[in-house]
Specification:
This protein is an alpha/beta fold. The chain is built from eight helices and 13 strands. The longest helix is centred in the middle third of the chain and has 12 residues.
Amino acid sequence: MIRKAVILAAGRGTRMGEYTVDTPKAMLPVRGRPMLEHVLDGLASVGVERFLVVTGYRREMVEDYFGKWRLPVEFRVQEALDGTGSATRLAREFAAADPFLLTFADILCPPAAYTLCANTLTDNPATLAVMGVKDVDDPWQGAAVYEEQGVVTRVVEKPPQGTSTTRWNSAGLYSMSPQVFPYLDRLEKSPRGEYELTSIFTMMLDEGREVRISAIEGAWRDVGRPEDLAAAETL
């Protein structure tokens, strides 16, 4: 099992409205505990031993709480909230020469999803990265992932509704070789003005490198809106 995990928790979560005026989204309560703690607990339950949390908005709340957590948690601050790609670059020193899992503080999924995503990377030496994917009716709100026999062929970020011929939606969970960092260094800003993590997969594919999928079974929730927070209570 991969022993290191990176969790991105820098954003405010503006779609949460008044919920995040004084509280970072990662610290919003789900079943009586911060959402981020559910993520860390799930990762720890499958053998992850070291954690890096990338903080930003109201970072002192996250760092004060998890600085005394039961397993070692390190922090890096994303000073400019300019995308998930630049946030992931902050993990270079933490990852060093080791593979790592990467997820978000607002992505809730079964612990088995972490194990499968990690094993898909470690069982396939030619694979640089693995994308956790979820079967949805239409992946127009995220990134549509096309694959053949588990190997990614292309990724389409925010496809127009009704245009995708794949049901796989990028689910905010990844396992990565440290070889991803040169690709992160080459990222350019997207039309939205951000360094977007998903762009590195297209770069890899364009160079003939292997990226695989890992299908997430069971309950999964991207807690992006107030109604998602309510739904997470029943996961």
